[in-house]
Each structure stands twice: as structure tokens, then as C-alpha cells.
Amino acid sequence: MKKLDTIFSQYIRLRDTNDLGHGRCFTCGVPIEYKTCECGHFRHRRHINTRWHEFNAHAQCFECNRGDDMVKYIVAMLNKYDSDIVDGIIRLSNDSTKLTKAEMEELYLYYHDKIKELLKDKMFKI
């Protein structure tokens, strides 16, 4: 699980930053950098079914990721996604189905390949 968390965080932070590693916090909009930003989750990571869901995670500054202002995150979600998608993430997070070890391994390999693709366009190394 820790390996998958690490590679998923790398993917989200790469996805949400430009080819120089710069971006903006998903919730407050302050400038962030790949090396110092965090992978923040709309629905908490304890919800396994959305822990590694790409629509549930976004690059955030330290303050937003560690804070409790869910209103800002909800507003950002509704600005980016249709309300049906946001509702779907909430419903999925409450589903009690668990991922198997094989499914987690598959996700790890999937994000490993996606990172390799993203790094082709980046001008920095991770």
C-alpha cells in the first residue's frame, strides 16, 4: 500500500505541474512546485475505493492539504468537475468493497507507466 501511495502521489504532482515542475494549489491557487507540493485528497485516504482515484486527488500546498477547509476543496471540485462526478466520488468512497493485493499491484504498474509518459515532457527529473 505504501509503494502505491508513493507512486500515486508522484503521478498526481507530475500531472498537476508543468514541464518545469511549477503549478498552482488546487484549492487556494498559490504557486507550488513539484518537489514541495503534496497530493491532497477530496475524500480522505481512509476511503480505500477513492484513495487512488485520479479525480479524488490533486496537487496542493502544504497548508491546504493539512488544513480542514473542506469548503475550499468542494468549491474547487465543483469548478473542475460536473456535480455528478463529485457525487460519484462521494458514493464510491462510501462503498465497502476492498481492493485486492493483485488490484493494488496492477494500479502500481499502471501509475508507473503513466509517470514514465509524463516525464517525457518534463524538463526535470524526480
Query: Taking strands numbered 1, 2, ... along the chain, how are they ordered across the largest sheet?
Result: 1-2
Report the total helices. Answer: 6
What spatial form do the alpha-carbon principal axes imply? globular
The structural class is mainly alpha
Description:
The structure is a single chain. The protein is mainly alpha-helical. The chain has one domain (2-119). It contains 6 helices and 4 strands, in the order αβββαβαααα. It has helices at 2-15, 48-51, 62-66, 70-80, 83-93, 101-119, and strands spanning 22-24, 31-33, 38-41, 57-60. The chain has a two-stranded antiparallel sheet. Strands 3-4 form a two-stranded antiparallel ribbon. Strand 1 (22-24) and strand 2 form a beta hairpin. Helix 1 (2-15) runs parallel beside helix 6. The mean pLDDT is 95.
Summary tags:
two-stranded antiparallel sheet; about 130 residues; mainly alpha; two-stranded antiparallel ribbon; 4 strands
Task: Give a summary of the structure in a few sentences.
With 126 residues, this protein is mainly alpha-helical. The protein is built from six helices and four strands, in the order H-E-E-E-H-E-H-H-H-H.
